[in-house]
Amino acid sequence: MYICIYICCLFVFVLPESHQGVHERRLLEHLFNMNYSKLERPVVNESEPVDVRFGITLQQLIDVDEKNQVMNTNIWLQMTWKAYNLVWDPEDFGNVTTIRVPVHLVWVPDILMYNSASEGFDATFRTNVVISNDGSCLWVPPGMFKSTCAIDITWFPFDDQKCDLKFGSWTHTGQYLNLTEDNSDGGDISDFIRNGEWELIGVPVRRNVLEYECCPEVYIDVTFTIHIRRRTLYYGFNIILPCVLISSLSLLLFLLPPDAGEKISLGTTILLSLMVFLLLVAETMPPTSDAVPLIGIYFACIMIMCSLSVCFTVIVLNLHHRSPDTHHMPSWIKHCICGWLAWVLRMERPGGFVSRRVAMQRSRLNDVKLDSLDEKSRSLMANVLDMDDDLRMANGTATAMMSKVEENSTTSHNVNSVSMRYDIVCILKEIRKITAKFRRDEEENDSKNEWKFAAMVIDRACFVVCVLFTFGSTFAIMWSAPHLIA
Q1: Contacts of 160 (CB under 8 A, 6+ apart)
Q2: What is the pTM (predicted TM-score) of this model?
């Protein structure tokens, strides 16, 4: 403790006084005397402009609001110029070569960002100005800039955005302030902090000399273009991949049997799922009609395909449940769908392909069999009746020799034979009814099978068309994107 006090006293009373603060004070008094005015442009000849070199250092890309078309950035501005009235000889002021003074004490160019979207318009922090002995002034004000940016959503989410930062003097024309770029290569991005959503491509710069309608003089501005590219990994896993999977599920709609009863509900569920993803994309996009995003076109194609698949499913179910009681199959369906289209799709009936001529021959054979069956039944009935007559004739002589009592029994036997004949006739009628019923059922089943086979052919054709449309649209849209991975 006592050693520290002794050392402090030694520095105060023994060591000589430091003259650095004194020299800077004398220098400030020399520069900022009564003759200096911060309203004066620092030029020797008033007819000449002040040469101001302007540059930026991009530190961070904070946010790009596509909905409001606004970009937030963290930027350091860099302005350099020479002031003839701020020059001194370092040897006269203790070799002081640079001083730092508050910005409100010296003249600074009134450079603002023209396309600012912040409430205060000027978002810079008023830092000190570094002045060198040769009159060079360096002013580096940092700021959080909010600028307008026209978002081009044509290739979303594989898009590149170019947002301009336009800087220029607000009141000085080109006659009084000559604004030039500090680096022709563009802004400094050596200290840029990596952004997870956007990849920085570059910050080129251009110098513009423009004439506005309000003023006859020319105004000079320096425009920096922040070229960024969207990273697609997030959108690929959260939007594109689920959309592709859902669109693939719509193909299963044609593989589901019509008797399952879930084809329409599955197609409607897939369509609603695509609508949910489309709403998620629409929430991030600006409400503009200038362009349609690429992913919006893809969603539209898939939704059209799903809507058509539901319509095709309704047609297939309608054909599948038709019967000859309500519909008669036209000849063009038999020839075009069950014949030609089935051959193109390499489809056969479950029991093997049967042509129309073979089917007619089989029907004719069935008619011949049924007619022969009727003839056999008629001959059977005749034989039964003949047998009954022969029996009765063979026993006639015996019955004639019988007594009168036996004649009564013969009469009862005749009654029994008549009743037997009636029973056989009734049985034959019932057999004919059953045969006709079987024939009608067989024809009805054949007609239903024809309708079901036509539904199967149309279902297979729709499946092929939807597969080609889904994969074709997917590859076409992905191939048209300027880049897939960033």
Answers
A1: 201, 227, 228, 229, 230, 482
A2: 0.72
d(CA 418, CA 5) in angstroms, rounded, equals 154
Look over the chain and give the mean of its residue pLDDT values, rounded to a whole number: 81
Q: Are strands 198-202 and 205-211 parallel, antiparallel or unpaired?
A: unpaired
* Whole-angstrom distance, CA of residue 31 vs CA of residue 52: 21
109 exposed, middle or buried (CB, 10 Å; 0-12, 13-18, 19+)? buried
Residue 457 tokens, joined: 């052919």
Q: Nearest Cα to 348, choosing from 462, 449, 464?
A: 449
CA distances from 69 to 155, 203, 343, 476 (A): 16, 19, 57, 29
Phi, psi angles (nearest 5°) of residue 52: -120, 125
Q: Provide the token pair at 307.
A: 């809507």
- Paired tokens of 186: 């563009």
User: Could you tell me which of 235, 220, 272, 194 has the C-alpha nearest to residue 51?
Assistant: 220
Give the HSE-up count for residue 445: Cα atoms under 13 Å, Cβ half-sphere: 6
pLDDT over 70, % of the chain = 81
Q: Which amino acid is at 453?
A: F
| Structure token pair of residue 301 | 């194609």
